[in-house]
Structures are given as C-alpha cells and as structure tokens.
Amino acid sequence: MSANGNETVFTMEATPIKYGRGAAEEVGWEVRRLRMNRVMLVSDPGVIQAGITGRIVELIEAEGVEVEVWDRSRVEPTADSLQAAADFARDGGFDGFVAVGGGTSIDTAKVSDLIATHGGEIMDYVNAPVGDGKKPPSPLKPLLAVPTTAGTGAEATTVAILDIPDQKIKTGISHQYLRPDRGLVDPLLTRTMPPEVTSSCGLDVVCHAAESFLTKPYDARPKSDSPDDRPPYQGSNPIADMWSGKALEFGGKYLRRAVKDGEDVEARGAMMLGASLAGVGFGSAGVHIPHACAYPIAGLKHEWQPPGYPDDHPFVPHGWSVIVTAPAAFRFTYDAMPGRHKEVAELLAGGPISDADENTLPEILISLMKDVGAPNGVRELGYTEDDIEALVDGAMKQQRLLVGSPKDVTEEDLANILRESMENW
Ligand SMILES: [Fe+2]
What we know:
The protein is 45% helix and 9% strand. It has 425 residues and is an alpha/beta fold. The strands form 2 sheets. Strands 1-8-5-4-2-3 form a 6-stranded parallel beta sheet, with helices on both faces. A two-stranded antiparallel ribbon has the order 6-7. The structure holds fe (ii) ion (FE2). Fe (ii) ion binds at residues 204, 208, 291, 318, 322.
C-alpha cells in the first residue's frame, strides 16, 4: 500500500498480433490452431462487397471448418443490433468466432462471443450505471480478429462500444475476457479504403496514442478494493507509453502518405500496425477528453454526410469526431504535465522541439488535420454555439473516460473546449 492510499500496481496485457502482408492468408491455420470447428464469422456489407470476407471464408472452409457469416454489423451498433447478433451466436452452436472488418464487426463478435458463452442479455454486462455491469465469470470461446481498417485497434482492446439511442449516449462493455485471442493484421486488406476513411481512422489512432500518453498516471488514482475492480483503463504507465509512443511516431510519419496514396503499402502497413500498437497502449492507459466529447458529437445529430463514406446515412466518422476537440483539449491539459505534452509533440513531429508551450501540440495536430483533409471543427459537423450545453451534458456522461484526464474537468471547462473547437483554423 502506498502512503497516500493510491494505486501501486498496473498490469500489462496485449493481444498476440500476427502482422504483415499476407497475414490474413493464414486465417485457416489460425482457426485450426484455436481448435475451432464451427465458426461464426462477423462482417459488414462493405467488407463483404470488397470481396475480403468471401476470401476469408474460403480459407477457413479449406481447413474443413464450418463457417456461418453474420453480415449485419452496423456502424454505431446499438444494444438491439448487438442483441440480434448475440441471439444468432447463442443459437448457432459455435465453438469459435472470427471478425472480419472494422471496429464494429470486431466489437459485435466480442459481444456475440460473450452471450454465446455465458448467456444473459447484453444490458446485463453493459457498464454501470447504464447497464448492470455484470462480469463474465470465465474466459470466452476463442475469437480471432481480422481488422480491415487502420483505426480502432479493437483487435487489441477489452471493450465493445455501443449506442443506447433512447438515452442518447454511447457506452460499452469492458472486461479483459473480451480481448480477442489473436489479431491478424494485414495491410493488404486496407488498400481499397478511400482517403477520407484512412484520414478518419488514422486520426483516431493518433488520438488513442496521444490521449493515453497524456492520461492521469495509474498511481495518481486511489487503489482498487480488489484486483477485480481495477479498471481496464488504468492510467498512463511506462509500458503503455512504449506502445502509444511508437504509434505517435508512426502517425506523424506515415498518415499523410497513407491518405495521399492508397497504394503506398509501407505507409498503410505502418498505420495499421500503429492502430494495433495504440490499441494496446490505450487499452491499458485509457483515453479521456477528446473521446468523451466525441460520443455526443457523433450521437446528438445525425445530419452530416461524410465525404468518402457510403451515402446511405448521415453520421460523423469516429476519428473525425474525436480529432476536432483534440487541439483545444490538449491546450487545456497542458499545464498538468507540460513535459509529456512536449514529448507527444516531438514524437509526432519526428524530432526535438526547443521551445514548447501550450500551443505547440495543438498546432502540430492542426497541421496534420489540414494535410489529411479533416473537418476543421465542430461547426462543420453541424453544430453551433447553441448546441454546446447539450454536447457538454453528453460528454459529462462519459465519466469512465473523464476520470483519466490529467486534471479535473468541469462542465465549464468542456464548454470552453467545445467553443474553441468550433473552428480549429
Ligand atoms: Fe477511438
């Protein structure tokens, strides 16, 4: 026990990752190794249309393993849409799960696996106070994640995010048993991603890495009563720093290139690996203000039709909903840990910076946003000053994230951050 009653312990856990061009071609071998005989494969219509899912199914079936495809993962999954997948999983007699797609498909597979293994309803497991916060009593059936975007890092994390439309909030299920057993990270799978998707996903990676690097240290939080109560987002620690630090370096060096030229496999690969690295980093340390603000920004209005995305429904892509408040958020948190803000700026810039102040990191982020065609602020996404109160309310509901801010954040602080974020340039 530390003298002040604070936490003295942190844990380091990471999903085993198999990375590189052609890694996805080994999916059949991996499925066999995990002793799966009947697989529920979770995917989404876009990935199926790109031909990726079909190829993966072929490779698994070639090993004599049965596959049933769940093709209805939707962007911004709700408790209802996840429950439908979970019902399918529970009734299907599966002994293993494969996710092929973005964060949504991977999260849907995590939740399907949870319900298929332990029964019950989704809301039993959703974080309290929104759900009952029940913990899965033992490990789940094996889950293999094959990401097709370079963003969420969902293959490396212990959370599944979902929308609760009647409460207008996003929340999640988080537990270490939700972590996939392995990720197959293959840069060849992202080649068809439009530049806008690459931009949004890549900026999500940068925010995961920056926020987790700049989160309140694990030993600044009161010690948990029992190991089971230690939160998955533990606060910054030396091991998470290594993962997030490398992801920042990759984001600064390769994101512009990946957006500019989809065929730049080196840059694509680095961003994809960066997404997994940041996934491990923030999966341990956590994210805070920009992600807390992103939930209401994505959830309150569904008016904006993002360029480069399917035009069937207006929404704000996750990475862009996060990055728009990042410059102002880090201007706000600067004085809590100036040295670490400078470090993040240097990692992104790829070299030492002599005179850093509270504007240095925000300026570096803004220049990156401009270069990769990100929206310039919250206003562009359909909001005005009149919406600030509602946005603040939504962000304040994300206390699970806001506790990670390196300094206390009040409603007024969030209102200021959102006001400053209306236009970043
Ligand atoms: Fe994110």
